[in-house]
Specification:
heterodimer; A: 331 residues; mainly alpha; 3-stranded antiparallel sheet; 9 helices; 8 strands; 9% strand; B: 88 residues; F1FO ATP Synthase; 86% helix; 0% strand; cell inner membrane (chain B); F/V-ATP_Csub_sf (chain B)
Chain lengths: 331, 88
């Protein structure tokens, strides 16, 4: 009883005194929260884990004048110039002799940036996990599943029976590997982004655009003639074709684009919320605000975890529904 | 003076204040839209589960999927407002 009371008294005194400690910091410059947020959700040429620990990644440039240049990104840190190249806010530009930017030379940037390294890492994680699952199925033939196979089997069966089979119909097996890969790849990238100092790969609109383009190609290449009949000769009176055909064509384009923007906006908005909450701690510089923000940020992190799963599921579900609408037979 | 004339006077010097106002209002309206839509879905899901508790698993799955679809539309608007705010 006395121990509980003294704990309570000590913590109250500590919190109260912390507010007075926070008041004598006006001599430092303002904390640039917009810059911090943009830096953390963008891409960069090295992999910065904290201030001062930066893992250098290869910079690979190709231009007609200089050919192929491969060097470490640490040579371009902090505005240094190497071989006439300078890292200008993420763009690598070539400088003239007098230090101004050479506008005529646009080197193609094939560097391994933070996002590319993350893609390689998550592909490696996928391969590791699923080769273990496949080995489990080979060695446990006819017996109950064990280990990581038993963790993933309900998920894969859920995807097969409740997502892909109802959407695509009897010929789902041709598309099922792609939908599984899509779901787990997006899921692993979403979860990697939730770690502190984690990379923001699925919030990169180029990444989601490529996934949406692949969906677009699969849907339109495997579409049968009933699908194109619904697009170019829908079941409406003939005089409405002049309105309906542009609307249907826009629909063909908008479905993958909505996939792209949905995943990008959900993940990026989640990261911006988390970074803003952490930035609040640095703006106020007090332990009391730190504690309150910590609790709220924990709650928001749990929502972000749910969003990570749901967005991967939605992407896979909508992709399988679009494929289903493309391959379904005439009823 | 009326609110409109006060705003117009404040904006007369430079237009970037009106851009910020537009972006903020847009994002707020999108949030209201998302809240209303998802609230309706949640309410119908609650009613459905109350009528038939055996179906609560299916209803819960569908509710989360539909909530994600509605939220996507609200986030389209939020992304556009973000793009506006970067062009000030």
């Amino acid at each position: 009883m006395f121990r509980h009371f003294s704990c309570l008294l000590f913590s109250v005194l500590f919190l109260v005194s912390s507010v007075s400690f926070a008041s004598d910091h006006e001599t430092e410059e303002d904390f640039d929260i917009a810059g911090m947020i943009m830096h953390h959700i963008g891409d960069e040429h090295g992999y910065e884990i904290t201030h001062g620990l930066k893992i250098p990644l290869p910079v690979i440039l190709y231009s007609k004048e200089d050919g192929l240049q491969v060097f470490s990104s640490s040579r371009l840190d902090n505005g240094k110039v190497y071989n006439g190249y300078k890292n200008d806010h993420g763009h690598i530009v070539k400088l003239n002799e007098d230090g101004t930017v050479n506008e005529a030379v646009h080197p193609f940037d094939f560097s391994i940036t933070k996002n590319v390294a993350t893609m390689i890492l998550s592909s490696a994680i996928l391969l590791l996990i699923f080769s273990a699952v496949a080995k489990g199925y080979r060695t446990n033939k006819g017996r109950a599943p064990k280990g990581i196979q038993s963790l993933l089997e309900p998920v894969i069966l859920f995807l097969r029976d409740d997502v892909v089979k109802p959407a695509i119909g009897p010929r789902y097996e041709k598309y099922f590997p792609y939908i599984l890969t899509l779901f787990f790849f997006i899921l692993i990238n979403n979860i990697l982004g939730l770690f502190p100092a984690g990379p923001n790969l699925s919030g990169n609109i180029a990444f989601t655009m490529v996934l949406a383009v692949i969906t677009f190609l699969i849907v339109n290449i495997s579409a049968n003639k009933y699908y194109w009949k619904h697009v170019f000769m829908p079941d409406t009176p003939g005089w409405m074709y002049i309105i309906m055909i542009p609307v249907e064509l826009v629909g063909v384009l908008m479905k993958p684009m909505s996939l792209m923007i949905r995943l990008f906006a959900n993940i990026t908005a989640g990261h911006i919320i988390m970074l803003s909450l952490y930035g609040l701690i640095f703006i106020f510089k007090s332990y009391l605000i730190g504690g309150a923000v910590g609790g709220f940020a924990l709650f928001m992190s749990l929502i972000e975890l749910l969003v990570a799963f749901v967005q991967a599921l939605i992407f896979a579900l909508l992709t399988s529904m679009y494929i289903g609408s493309a391959v379904e037979e005439h009823h | 003076m009326s609110l409109l004339s006060i705003i117009l006077q404040a904006v007369a010097e430079s237009g970037s204040g009106l851009i910020a106002l537009g972006a903020g209002l847009g994002a707020g309206l999108a949030a209201i839209g998302a809240g209303l839509g998802i609230g309706k879905i949640g309410g119908s899901a609650m009613e459905g589960v109350a009528r038939q508790p055996e179906a609560s698993g299916k209803i819960q799955t569908m509710m989360i999927i539909i909530a994600a679809l509605i939220e996507a539309v609200a986030l389209f608007a939020a992304v556009i407002c973000l793009l506006i705010s970067f062009n000030i």
